[in-house]
What we know:
It is a single chain. This protein is of the alpha+beta class. Strands 1-5-6-7-3 form a five-stranded antiparallel β-sheet, with helices on both faces. The protein has five helices and 15 strands. It is elongated and about 85 Å long. Helix 1 (3-12) runs antiparallel to helix 4 (72-82). It folds into two domains: 3-153, Hotdog Thioesterase (Thiol Ester Dehydrase, Chain A); 174-287, no CATH class. Residues 213-274 form the ChsH2 C-terminal OB-fold domain.
Amino acid sequence: xxxxxxxxxxxxxxxxxxxxxxxxxxxxxxxxxxxxxxxxxxxxxxxxxxxxxxxxxxxxxxxxxxxxxxxxxxxxxxxxxxxxxxxxxxxxxxxxxxxxxxxxxxxxxxxxxxxxxxxxxxxxxxxxxxxxxxxxxxxxxxxxxxxxxxxxxxxxxxxxxxxxxxxxxxxxxxxxxxxxxxxxxxxxxxxxxxxxxxxxxxxxxxxxxxxxxxxxxxxxxxxxxxxxxxxxxxxxxxxxxxxxxxxxxxxxxxxxxxxxxxxxxxxxxxxxxxxxxxxxxxxxxxxxx
Length: 289
């Protein structure tokens, strides 16, 4: 049976059976939520209400929760696992709230399969986008709903580092590459004046001055960037992002931003290091989440 045929079977089941929350809406949970979120709105305490965004909280299954047999998302997870799409990432969630919940009300939730689209090629690998719709009710009254989408995918094989373009290491830059092998981002220093890329002469051209270096914190912000789509680059999987990062120390440095396909100006990043072989370790950037 094809994936499409199995999707039709799951969709034909319609909504799952109502899943009743373990506990009614209660002030203890509301207070914990408000404290965690930092919400000081007095309305919830004064009126005995819960924040609308807590809708999903009441029907969470807890640590030892097992999905019901008629849960469509659970069914789709199994179908995709069996087809080899074993990895998962949540992509987006859209929630609607129709009224405030009040202390003492008991919420139930049902879920149905809304849509399945694929296979699609993504930066993570080939996969299927699965969308479910969960509806929360008090009795027969709908109080909130949510469209929830995940991507079930086959992880893309990591590109081989064979054939990786190698930097030209000179007497002036040797200290920098020795630093990357040691997990350090080193910046050339001429009597306290920092310079990158490193050069053979000091900014004031004083031939008696000898260069040293400082170890950067590795933290900075994206100053400019490009997303490289073509042509192919040895050892790289397309597309990839190259960013010019302004470090906390004030100099700017180029490098690949890993694990993402896009960034934005001003985005915070930190340095990381990718060992190509025993002779070469490349500095890269990771987005600070």
